[in-house]
Protein 1
Amino acid sequence: MTTRRVLLSAIAAIVAIGSIGQAAAQPYPNRPIKMIVPFAPGGSDIIARLVADLLTASLGQPVIIENKPGAGGTTGTKLVTAAEPDGYTLTLASPGPITVAPAVNKNLDYDPIRQLAPVAMVATAPIVMVVHPGVPAKTLQEFVAHAKANPGKINFASPGFGTSPHLFGELLKQRTGVDIVHIPYRGSSPAIVDLVAGQVQMFFDNVRNVQSFIEAGKLRALAVTSDTRSPDLPDLPTMAEAGVDGFVGFYWNGVLAPAGTPAPIIDRLNAVINDALRSREGRANLARFGMQPRIGSPQDFAALIVAEHERWAAVARAANF
């Protein structure tokens, strides 16, 4: 009887191993994919759901969004670095936890360049510099002159210390020599509320987040930080056109996987995402949120991450963070 039980157990183990092998041999993907968004619902979460829907339709498996907010996006991003590199855990990345956090936090407990594999860029969006209408400046040069005439009296908001808008403000200080004061908030929404109320005077944010206030005359736009003008504000100059050289920046989203994810899986995901971005539906969905598709290879995305990290690390060093 004991021998029979041992034999049955051995057969069961062999069958289980065979099943695992068959599952592993099945084409990717053969089960649901998880996409971690390291922020609360809203913002990047919206773009993540667009990407998830496009991947679901193309891959034939559901792509499930999991929001893991905390510590400016670093909590959820670290979870991805520790996940199995099998193509079933992805993240919808943005500058904060990928290129900004490593530049301002020497004690960051993960390395996005070494521990994450770029899959595909998704989209970019211009950032706009806005001021309260009470600021006597209708152009960027007028703002610089006003700030220099009133050192320490202009406050600029950000969603928190070390965020992209904070670094944009520091870069403005470095490029123009103005003495403006950083006021950190717990997110963009409260920063915008205080900006509209005149509690702070200046802010950098995504065009779509502040466009309605600009159109209503509650905020005044001075320039966009991208290297080309925004389709949503075509009459607004870039920072370079407005007289501040060496000031280029933008918001981006892209898909990353844990380092070590097999190249064939990354290449397939890249192809599917790029095909979706080329489609009329994909472009239209992104345009609703003021974003433009960014088509390219995993290597293109890797190069952008390295360049952005170096850019903001230099700004952080100059600001003595």
Protein 2
Amino acid sequence: MNYTLHQLEIYKKVAELQSVTRAAEELYLTQPAISIQLKKLQEQFTQPLFEVIGRKLFITDFGKEVAISVDRILSEVGDLNTKMLTHDGQLAGKLKIALVSTAKYVMPYFLINFMEEHSGVTLTMDVTNKSSVINSLEKNLVDFALVSVIPDNLKINSVELMQNKLFLIGGRDCVPTSKNILKKEIAKLPMLYREFGSATRAAMENYIKSQGLPNVKRLELTSNEAVKQAIIAGLGYSIMPLIGVKNELETGDIKIIKAKGLPIITNWNLIWLKSKRLTPVAEAYVEYLKSNCQRVIKTSFDWFEKY
């Protein structure tokens, strides 16, 4: 056997995504570069790791077994690097965070300086809906979760980061007024919803219920980005977090419609289980947030106060 760690890392990503194209995008490599390394790795085995049927790639049963071993090998290598850096007095290890989809517009700004200061820290961020985020936290699959609504069924610790504001949003052709839109007019709007389990959807449904409005869905989509694009295309209206529509507000592709009871204001919180024993990396990150949170808000989110 004469395979390299680089080849194993590529195979792991391809096996996870079952796509050379997506693996190339995530690894910032070209598709030909991925294919060459896969071919060299395959030459080390007598059994096929994968097969291509039509234009779709499938991992074989043997390939799945290899993928499990590759994951274990890369994990051990990572642990060795961590031990070396720790021995040299550097902060090193893994930081695992699950975040709701809208939080992808927030979390990077609260991570960038920490990651730059500690090159020995490796980061995993799982972006999904609230239900899956809380499930990952409960199962101890992550160190932290970033949510806008704190679950009341868990005993958790938290660090409050910044406000989350949700507005009624329309496309370029809507005509916002200085006064609140009437309830009867909202009731006529074709509304676009997030999928079940989304915190944004829950906030929207709670608002509609509190205002006595009909809960009629025109379209259900699985991400805020998809909802935003549907609004831009003119398919309907929605209640969305301000944090994800900054650029579109500036270009005029999306407009805020004033309505009674809006904006809905919650707070982004980094949370973790009270019973969890934090790693040195996780503890260092909590301290970093406590010391730098306001600075990050001031430097990266000053535009937020305009709305």
Protein 3
Amino acid sequence: MRASFYRGNRTFETGTAPMPAPADGEALLRIRRVGICGTDLHIFQGHLDHRVPLGGIIGHEIFADVVSAPAGSGFREGDRVVVEPVQFCGQCRACRMGATYLCYQLKVLGVDVTGGMQEYWAVPAARLLKLPDSVSDHDAPLIEPLAVATHDVARAEVKPGDRVVVFGGGPIGTLIALVSRHRGAEVKVVEINPHRVEMLKRFGLDPIGPEEDVKAAVNAWTGGTGADVAFEVSGSPDAAVLVTEVVRVWGTVSIIAIHAEPVPFQLYSLFARELKVHGSRLYTRAAWEEAIRLVASAAVNVGPLVSRVIPLEDLQRGMEEALGGGPVMKVLVEVGG
């Protein structure tokens, strides 16, 4: 079967791999489409070489069909599924607390261990979620990033009437903005890429563009009080400096972006306004279930995020284009038809 292998040095190579044999409790999947996300771009740039093995197969935003499944798993041949790509021990303090997605022995499928950039994949059936017919094949690969967003918004406790600032209008930032708006919040998104600024407008979102002073724009919007919640999703050191500066007294700052290097952070605002700051990583099962409901009910329209669909053999080019800063939002890899 075909698979794409990470070779290091910004290189992916498509070749052949043996057909996987499912172990006890595993389902065999035929992979349909895989999304390229920000974590994959960090992998491509070598930022996660301490986790991703050379010759490894990445990909964790998965849409697939079930080929076979264990008896009693609730899945059968032909089911359309997405994959919750976490591997946890179930015994450590984090798991006992209910934070299995933050397990001290956590492995992410498609990062630390084999992922979905291959035609067939054997995955524990416990990690699968079935898709209703109302979720289209086009939208299905966006369930994983939407689950990130639903988890982030839940962690930040966004509520009706809140004013929310999202730093970064890429796929995750846009989805956080859409989920926050669905919850009844007013939202502004800070973004410097002109293509993404226009896409935000098409979603009916209100961007703060590259020509604007972010702090002044938020002060004008909130009468000088500051936003209730600010999300840092851009990965920009400049945003890290600003994110605590735009939030009101007792406001919330949520850090979602992966910052590969230490960055400056305004701690004085944290002290002076008694801000609540937290990180937000991955997702709960409840976040996945909410994401599926939002897409199935058309409450959140994820489809327009897809910029293009490429074949597996073009994964290298897809990574380069996604990093290029051009008119690209979300790239999907067509693994099998």
